[in-house]
């Protein structure tokens, strides 16, 4: 078994205490070939920005960018993003302002190591490639299909991802080896970019995305391709991955097993709808601070590729009504408050279980460098059309993405 230590990836040997929703491998010892842990690495150019996070989320889900927000993002980044192209279309944002952590992935023979963003809200594995014009490359590692003896062009296949401002990333498709940790998919669809949106060009540390959503939203034409997770399932002890994301620290993804040392109590599972291609589930309600729990169904997606928590306006208002000096700012694209304000916690329900997001997670930092005004980690989903449990929520829990025949999501508390 080759070592992947140079990729900051290590095999994980754990006992898998799996719930009844999962295959019957309860209490077995997981061998190296059936499970592994992937440790994130910090994006060295990451700079948190609430307005840029909202901007990026609007782009991802095809929402038009409000002019005031575009202008604010332009100013925050000293004109590097938000600039109008040809006098009309706004440029897309620098991902390094939003993606704090990335994960090394090995592609091809011999291996080419690229740093990818693991995204449960999409289903394409696309990468910067040597086919890109020099003007669209800014220090990224490029996938060179011609230098890989295991690559083969899928003739007639293409891919294209469109964003909310009308820009897009697109290219052709190869079949090649893709390894994450000690397991390899020998014929994975690798979507090689021939053009990329400026949001990705501007960030030298992110070389592409690895989608962990469901296959039905893959963008390859004429035939949608399976995700790396779908293809690797037969090699896993159990067809799942877990996300143990951290606040202001690298987190881990574990494929094939559940590490019982990473959570407390029991895991509560909830059903998943795959019709939209996302990990869509229903939360049982919410609570603000120490107030009583409000039982109400909140349908949303668990999305590792979105930074903030986006919920219905009524819930967001209820939260910020408890934050002194808070207001909904068109300029900054969401709720802001004095950085000196005391924030309450926010709780959401998974059945009878409760996940508590600490107050510190709900302060996403200053709206601009040196400002006394801060941006909220909880924002309204009204303009997006979908509720999103992004990293602000996911970091407060240990989350199991169970990709069995009947998918489920498992949630547990953990030491924070």
From TrEMBL:
The active site is at residues 119, 303. Residues 1-21 form the signal peptide. Residues 101-412 form the Peptidase A1 domain. This is Aspartic-type endopeptidase-like protein. InterPro entries: Aspartic_peptidase_A1, Aspartic_peptidase_AS, Aspergillopepsin-like_cat_dom, PEPTIDASE_A1, Peptidase_aspartic_dom_sf. Belongs to the peptidase A1 family. GO terms for molecular function: aspartic-type endopeptidase activity. Keywords: Aspartyl protease, Hydrolase, Protease, Signal. One of its GO terms (biological process) is proteolysis.
């Amino acid at each position: 078994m080759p070592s992947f230590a140079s990729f900051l990836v290590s095999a994980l040997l754990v006992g898998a205490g799996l719930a009844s929703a999962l295959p019957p491998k309860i209490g077995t010892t997981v061998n190296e070939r059936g499970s592994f842990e992937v440790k994130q690495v910090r994006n060295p150019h990451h700079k948190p920005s609430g307005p840029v996070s909202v901007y990026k989320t609007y782009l991802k889900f095809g929402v038009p960018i409000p002019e005031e927000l575009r202008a604010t993002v332009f100013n925050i980044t000293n004109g590097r993003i938000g600039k109008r192209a040809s006098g009309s279309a706004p440029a897309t944002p620098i991902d390094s302002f939003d993606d704090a952590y990335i994960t090394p992935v090995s592609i091809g023979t011999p291996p080419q190591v690229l740093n990818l963003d693991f995204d449960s809200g999409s289903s394409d594995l696309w990468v910067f490639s040597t086919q890109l014009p020099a003007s669209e490359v800014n220090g990224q590692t490029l996938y060179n299909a011609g230098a890989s003896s295991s690559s083969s062009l899928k003739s007639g296949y293409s891919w294209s991802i469109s964003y909310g401002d009308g820009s897009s990333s697109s290219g052709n498709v190869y079949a090649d080896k893709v390894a994450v940790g000690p397991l390899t998919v020998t014929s994975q669809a690798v979507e090689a970019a021939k053009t990329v949106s400026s949001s990705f060009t501007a960030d030298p540390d992110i070389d592409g995305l690895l989608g962990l959503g469901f296959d039905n939203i893959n963008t390859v034409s004429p035939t949608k391709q399976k995700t790396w997770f779908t293809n690797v399932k037969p090699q896993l002890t159990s067809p799942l991955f877990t996300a143990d994301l951290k606040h202001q620290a690298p987190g881990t993804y574990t494929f094939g097993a559940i590490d019982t040392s990473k959570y407390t109590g029991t895991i509560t599972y909830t059903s998943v709808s795959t019709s939209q291609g996302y990990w869509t589930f229903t939360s049982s309600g919410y609570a603000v601070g120490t107030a009583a729990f409000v039982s109400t169904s909140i349908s949303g997606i668990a999305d590792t590729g979105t930074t903030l928590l986006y919920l219905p306006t009524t819930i967001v208002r209820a939260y910020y009504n408890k934050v002194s000096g808070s207001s909904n700012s068109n300029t900054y694209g969401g709720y802001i408050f004095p950085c000196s304000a005391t924030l309450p916690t926010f709780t959401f329900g998974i059945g009878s279980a409760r996940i508590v997001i600490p107050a510190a997670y709900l302060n996403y930092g200053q709206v601009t460098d040196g400002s006394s005004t801060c941006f909220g980690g909880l924002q309204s989903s009204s303009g997006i059309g979908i509720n999103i449990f992004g990293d602000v929520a996911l970091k407060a829990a240990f989350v199991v993405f169970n990709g069995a025949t009947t998918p489920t999501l498992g949630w547990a508390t953990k030491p924070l």
